[in-house]
Amino acid sequence: MPPSSGKAQLFADRDYGGAVTTLEEGIYQLGTSAGAVGNDTVSSLKVAPGYTVTVYSGSNCRGASATFTADTAHVGEAFHDVISSVQVFAAQTTSTAPDWFDEGRPPDWFEE
User: Fold this and answer.
1) Residue 73 CB: number of other CB atoms within 10 A?
2) pTM
3) How confident is the model at residue 75 (pLDDT cuts 50, 70, 90)?
4) CA 19 → CA 34, 61, 109, distances in Å?
5) Integer CA distances (angstroms), 23 to 10, 95, 111, in order
6) CATH 2.60.20.10 corresponds to the domain 8-91
7) Which of 66, 53, 72, 70 is nearest to 15 (CA)?
């Protein structure tokens, strides 16, 4: 289930429990700019469709990192209660199809 508001939600407890902080797109230092969930306290998170959350063990997006694109009931033992900074951003989509492909037919100049 995606966040009820914002682009991501961080939870202090597993399975989306405990204190919660809702984030918009941006870079956050936990304990200073992220709200109720503090430094080294994140256990689970929710991610809105089309967004990506990258968590870091150190401040200023340094140290070990993990990227999440979906709701995660437990961030895993490697990141449980060690996350210090977070980056929330729109997922990058890349397409190898030409621009006209989205229209469902090739342009007049295209020869098969």
Assistant:
1) 13
2) 0.77
3) very high
4) 12, 22, 58
5) 8, 28, 49
6) yes
7) 72
